[in-house]
Amino acid sequence: MSAAFDKLARPVQKWIRSKGWRELRDIQARATQAILDGDGDVIIAASTAGGKTEAAFLPLISEVLDGPRSQGQGFDLLYIGPLKALITDQAARLEDICRDAILPVVPWHGDVSQSVKARALKTPGGTLMITPESLEALFIRRGLEIPRLFRGLRAVVIDELHSVLDTERGVQLRSLLARMELSIGHPVRRVGLSATLGDMGLAKAYLRPDSASEVTLIEGDSGESELRLQVRGYLSGGEGDDARSATDAVAEHLFANLRGTDNLVFAGSRQSVEIYADRLRDLCEREHMPQEFYPHHASLSREHRDFVERRLKDPGKPTTAVCTSTLELGIDIGDVTCVAQIGAPFSVAALRQRLGRSGRREGQPAILRQYAVETALSSDSSFVDRLRLGLVRAIAMIELLLEGWCEPPKPQALHLSTLVHQILSVIAERGGASASRLYAILCREGPFRAVSQAQFLDVLRSIGEANTALIEQADDGSLLLGRVGEKLVEHYGFYAVFKTPEEFRLICDGRELGTIPIENILAPGMLLIFSGRRWVVEKMHDREKAIVVKPAKAGTPPMFGGDPGDIHDRVIERMFDIFEGELIPSYLDKTASELLEEARRNFHMLGFGETSIVSIGPDSSILAIRVGTIRAVSLALALRGQGFEVEQHDGFLKVERKGDAPALCEALKRILDQEEPDLAAGAPNLMFEKFHHYLSQDLLELDARSCRLDLTGVVMTAERLMR
Q1: Which residues pair with 693 in a beta bridge?
Q2: 227-383 — its CATH code?
Q3: Which of 107, 150, 298, 313 is the most buried (most CB within 10 A)?
Q4: 356 pLDDT exceeds 90?
Q5: The pLDDT value given to residue 395
């Protein structure tokens, strides 16, 4: 064994020997040296099943066992995980390590009995394993006990760090960590466990904003494991004797290649998951085979999801889970043979995380099967269908994945919705607080440093208004929970800052079509996809959660294989490189290769090889804007403000001049001449986060401009189009 092994506590060494390990992994040896030889913050980054958990806990547990301890010091270590199921999995691993060390391991979430929690609160010690939401509940319900429970805390381990870098939940967690250190009076070492990111400097800045350069990064060797991948193309809506449902064709290929092994099929929406799971189940019955294919998504019962996860871990029961993003994070489901992706993903990061589920066993390749379903063309097909945007996006993301790139977090956002949440939480924890104390805790010391004092006071005024009543001011000037604020905080749903996307009702010609989750900015004239069709937005009613739409002229929408999200500029740039290139990637099957060549021919036939603006009518044009979602939405809103209807697609805008709107070039010039492009004139929806509806319109616009809109990008894109 190595010198790193010799540094570990004897009970930990005994556990390692009992597992038959001949040596620590390289990442475990380096993490042991870094943690036991210093006291700084550490990020341990490696692929799924890279040994990150042991790399962190073997030395941390050793430090607890070999270091000075005293009665009543509280919990020694704090583990924060994103999922209850992940906490349950990791708790079993830690209990195994700590069995001989007689060190308590306390999983803490809704499925843990009250007697276990009461015992842990009475005599806290060992490792507390908890979600951000349950930690929030501890602060609110037992705020005065936080110093007693955590005063001896040595380290906090944040699992799946990459999953919270750019989220409201991640900001909530940073706020809780800052509040923890203020409550116990000393800094606590932070250890992040993460998948390898394109820019780990951003992860360092998240972990310790004031001293990111001092965070030690330990990256695991990604290894040279074999990757096998194929992109298969399918046409939907064709004619002739060979025409059949593309869905049936994809299901049959999955059935023929996945049965008898464990696999994950990421099918996109919950509706698609159910459709494909049903087709695969039917194929099993027709072939008189045992059932192997099961749906897995958040709308299904916890009991059903547990059943599927247990089957995946059972080596005697071949199982394929057809899922949304629910199985993307690090919950232990054992080794899978193949990851299948139906439709173009929205991010390279998600594709990388999913692929990391495959090829975990030594000597086994990682396998990715990508299915691209495109629409058969007709004489009146739209440019969207002719350019095969779904296929080209899938290829662009695979190319970036192979290069090791993935999306960085967005620039600093204000996160005003989560700020509202944390204001209420601190007031509840302390029984009241002054405005200056709240600003110091949350903005000066906490994660909301981009929020100025003037903006903070505007937030307080907004949530203190009579029609809001979240907070009120006492005679001594301190802020207390108001009538509505008390009801909010008392409800268990308050602890989470995230929420499922807001469901908006879709209305066409006075008839309700159904509901759809909205996560991106929409405005009249923009496009959305629902029930297998494209629709144009006519009116947005934010407060009533309703969208009035009309059918769009474009054909069948592309299939996307992930949760809706912002597509990065770099992905769009790579898509245009593919359009303008000649190389046919070797991983494309015959149909996908033909579709790519067709897309390139149409790209040049439409004129995009020579110009960025193509006229398709006296008042209609297609703009090749070559930017991602945020800049595309921003320019679309600016053009909407000039009197244009705008449809947004990957890297393109279709614009139509209405009424007395200026000519397109004149509109672009006006946008450039404005001191600040007017994006509000497009009447966009600005309520996305859980507490947005308590904020004023000015604050909503301020929050959107900090993370969902890009004024500078509008100017840059308009200038490029004018050239």
Answers
A1: none
A2: 3.40.50.300
A3: 107
A4: no
A5: 97
- Intrachain domains 3-219 and 227-383 with the same fold: yes
Residue 284, SS3?
A: helix
- Backbone dihedral region for residue 370 (phi beyond 0: left; psi -120 to 50: alpha; all else: beta): beta
**Helix and strand element counts for the chain (H, E):** 26, 24
In whole angstroms, give the CA distance from residue 178 to residue 445: 7
Question: Which residues does 29 contact at the CB level (< 8 Å), separation at least 6?
Answer: 2, 4, 5
Confidence of residue 243 (pLDDT cuts 50, 70, 90): very low
Domain spans of the chain?
A: 3-219, 227-383, 416-495, 502-563+611-722
In angstroms, how far apart are the furthest CA atoms of the chain? 82
pLDDT digits (tens, 9 = 90+) for 117-128: 888 889 999 999
- Can you say whether the dihedral through the CA atoms of 283, 285, 291, 295 is positive or negative? positive
Architecture of 416-495 per CATH? Orthogonal Bundle (1.10)
Which one, of 472, 384, 447, lies nearest residue 206 by Cα?
447
Can you give the pTM of this predicted structure? 0.82
- Within 13 A of 115's CA, how many CA atoms are on the CB side? 0
Other Cβ atoms within 10 Å of 184 Cβ, number: 18
Cβ neighbours, 10 Å, residue 235: 17
Residue 214 has what DSSP assignment? G
Q: Determine contact, residues 518/560, Cβ cutoff 8 Å.
A: no
pLDDT in tens, 669-694: 998 888 777 776 666 778 878 899 89
Q: Helix 416-430 vs helix 697-707: angle between axes, to the nearest 10 degrees?
A: 110
Cα–Cα dist 373/247, whole Å: 8
* The two three-digit tokens of residue 710, written as one number: 């890009």
Of 491, 547, 57, 563, whose CA–CA distance to 324 is shortest? 563
Of residues 357 and 108, the one with the higher pLDDT is: 108
468-485 pLDDT, tens digit per residue, is 889 999 999 999 999 999
State in words which class domain 3-219 has: alpha beta
Question: CA of 6: how far to CAs of 77, 369, 701, in Å?
Answer: 22, 44, 57
Q: Which residue has the tokens 């570990």?
A: 8
Residue 241 has pLDDT above 50, yes or no: no
Amino acid residing at 538? E
Please indicate whether residue 338 or residue 512 has the higher confidence score (pLDDT): 338
In percent, how much of the chain has pLDDT > 90? 49
**Which residue in 229, 258, 278, 234 sits closest to 371, CA to CA?**
234
